[in-house]
Amino acid sequence: MTSPWPGRASGILLHPTSLPGPWGMGDLGPASRDLLQWLAAAGQELWQLLPLTPVGPSGSPYSSPSAFAINPLLLSLDDLIADGWLAADAPGLSALWTGPQERVDFAVQTAHKEPLVRAAAGALLAARGSDRFPDSAWGDFAARHVAWLPAWASFAAEKRARGGAPRWAWEGAPIASEHDVALEAAVQFLGFQQVARLRSEASALGIRIVGDLPIFVAEDSADVHGAPDLFDLAEDGRPRVVAGVPPDAFSDLGQLWGNPMYRWDRMAETDYGWWRARMRTLLEVVDLVRVDHFRGFAAAWAVPRDAADARSGEWTPGSGRALFDALADELGGGRLPFIAEDLGVITPDVEALRDGLGLPGMKILQFAFDGNDDNAYLPAHHPPNCVVYTGTHDNDTVVGWWDHAPDWSRDALRRQLGGDVDRDGVAWALLELAMASPAELCITPIQDVLGLDGSARMNVPGVADGNWAWRLAPGQLTHALADRLRGLSESSGR
Fold first, then answer.
1. CATH code: domain of residue 134
2. Of 341, 342, 440, 448, catalytic
3. DSSP letters of 437-479?
4. Which of 13, 232, 323, 410 counts the highest number of beta carbons within 10 A?
């Protein structure tokens, strides 16, 4: 593909963990390749993912201990076996095969899958220097990722050696062995190898992969541990202030995320080297990037670390355009491959930054039906340079939204459609509106294509437990559904 932008096109939002399969969690292997074939049959040119980085304590990919690494739990055991790095009868496989299948159990995955992935990494290391794993293959990989791989491997190994203790509790000299550090690096080699295979197949089918870049990093991360000078930290090494959002219509207390804030002045002194490396690495994995919390690059809500809630925060300046000019330089100019997540409290300076960079914003149809004809989320007000969604991973499904929507909101939708709609038809009614939008790109959560209710929701913001676990059932993505989706895309000029 010469350009990551496909023109007027459509696709679906589905994280690999939600794919079906026998190991208790979807991954980057056969189920992902089967999905690509289904997308091609359905006439879809986009597959949007959530971040592929390691997950946080509750399974959230938005609180990762690395802004660069591939989540080891996403590695395909089938592919590790097929590639000869893992024995087909390896101890621990049966525990995953017979474990929970309907929803992801991250505790089970961590306990049983991580040792299998590390065993495969050990086999890879043992083969280094042979025809199966020549030194040149390792050298090329290590050179491409020198900006972050050594820091991640040492951090991950040390954290494991210390029983998962957070970085600020570490005392004394490192205790992880050189072999442990090498294992963590080898896991990443395998992860990027599997991603490259998947992306190559997607490219051959004419499908772009849309990734996700969380603006902030976790406090307990290799990023903060390896480059503390780039973050606003107190003398104890912990954040002086943390990120969040102010009180709004959804929360009287605001949201307290807990991420450390950047020292943009120090980022600028290095010509944004950390961000350049982050984007280079991400664009090895995906074609387009949804930039999460884009407004934070104009100004972000900073809250004292010990505050009970987000009300005491204040707006602090972000990087502004300077960061994106550096990234444009890094990527060689041309149209930036970014989608601006411009939801929430959007002020004129945020709009000016987005529009000055020529970035498409996001239009969420679930937000459109307040009865106001001037609502910017109504399709009549969508500019071509935007991406329309029925909902995101943070929204309820369309059917779940319908179940809880007030009557006046349902009536507003009916007026928009010029006719009646019921619970059984509402998901495709919104999908048809999205497809017909002037928006260049249309992306729909697979739950809405399937017309699923709120039990299939991926995430409820502000709720710590029970998120990120939803999975497709085997056989849900049928040929008939692909034909129906292809027909709608084609009739909408996508």
1. 3.20.20.80
2. 341
3. SS-SEEEEEHHHHTT--GGG----TT--SS-S-B-PPTT-S-H
4. 13
